[in-house]
Amino acid sequence: MLAADHLNRLGAILGPQGLLTLPSDMVAYEKAARYAGGRAAFVARPASTETVSQVVGYCVRHDITLVPQSGNTGLVGGSTPDDSGKQGVLSLERLRSTFELDIDNRSLRVDAGFRLSELNARLEPHGLFFPIDLGADPMAGGMVAANTGGARFLRFGDVRRNTLGLKLVLADGDGTILHCGKGLRKDNTGPDWKQLFIGTGGAFGIITECTFNLERLPRQTATAYLVPATAAATLTLLNELEERAGTLLSAFEGMSGAAIGHALAHVPSLRNPFPGGTTPAYVILVELSRSWAPRAGEQTLDAMLEEILAEIWELPGGPLADAFIGAPAEMWSLRHTLSEGTKAAGYVVGLDLSFRRGEVMRFRKRMTGLLAQEFPQVQICDFGHIGDGGVHFNLVLPRDRNGAADITMAARLRSFVTEVAVEEHGGSFSAEHGLGRSNQHFYDRYTPEKLKRMAAQLRLATSPGVTGVVRL
Length: 472
Prior knowledge:
Layout: H1 4-14, E1 19-20, H2 23-30, E2 40-44, H3 49-61, E3 66-69, E4 87-91, E5 99-102, E6 107-111, H4 116-123, E7 128-129, H5 140-146, H6 153-156, E8 163-169, E9 177-180, H7 194-197, E10 206-213, E11 215-216, E12 220-228, H8 233-245, E13 249-256, H9 257-266, E14 282-290, H10 301-313, E15 320-326, H11 328-336, H12 338-345, E16 347-354, H13 360-374, E17 379-380, E18 383-384, E19 390-397, H14 407-424, H15 436-446, H16 449-462
Parallel strand pairs: 2-4, 3-4
Antiparallel strand pairs: 1-2, 5-6, 6-10, 7-11, 8-9, 8-10, 12-14, 12-15, 13-14, 13-18, 16-19, 17-19
Helix pairs in contact: 8-10, 9-12
């Protein structure tokens, strides 16, 4: 319990709407998106960068731990307090004053509290969008802190690639406000300091404002479900599509049959697109897109995709077992409900992994055999961004009659799979979700000591008052 004097002083800084202390008011900020949350001492809700600075400076000077929280959609326990009741949550949800669109620069300067869906809804009339496609709806600051990727990484890259500038607050006794970048795409006047804060979960500074690169909205889109003839054929299909479609290829998403089955069972509005209602063991969602309207005499993307698939169909070895071209909205709706369907099927142990592209299907085949032997009660419901080597390797555990799961087994399962991914396949245990409590021990185990010391020195140089969840 935080002393009343501290709460009074924080209340004076934040104003009547800026500080929450009642347990009933703090519940939404204490609960994580997937895993158990904790108990907050208070929730600070500043409405400006200057107020963030004052709150952070005060807490650093009085040794009060703050946990930065953006949209609270993360899956690794990085945005909620622990069970001690001594940590405060610093919510960015009221940072919503700045929304400055620069059409000529094709960029957007925006406060950290705007959600992705709102950004794109307000950009759509201008024919632009922020090209990060996620199943969740995070806030701008959290997307930068986690360096999210998404389903169209293959074409547009991650948040790091699309960030042109940041405003942030350092966790020092002054709550120093720092500007990194001017919205320029080229600036070699020194180190690109904004990159130090992207993807580090707030350990080096709390992001309060972002300047994003924008892209033109796709005006033509074609999608298809592909069924590879074998697991190894998946990489062949990717390479052939890249060669034939070039930069028009905007997505290459793998979906396990088990994940698809749970989505179809959980969401009645979804239509089973596969003949006879039988779901293939593995399906790839492919998308081609153009940013211009159809032109007279120009081959449509549907026709182009059909032609490309016909060429691939005739390749030696027959890498393609089946293909279905369909309406983009319908095909993507299935992809975006996979998480929801999997969550409804049982207790989800979610691992956010990445590999060299050639290792993705080898890892999947290896784990299918190992888990059948070591954890036969586990069902693999994976999906992910095969085009960039990312895999959301979700494992579903059964719940007992009381709705509980074996948490001890879940922890062993997470460690088992991560060891194989990192040690045998050279993968990463955190592709785009960040660290948080769920991944901290893997960071401690697999990061070379020299790099950990360098990270600690950077943290001390930027935010010496950080004592919270992420300990880079």
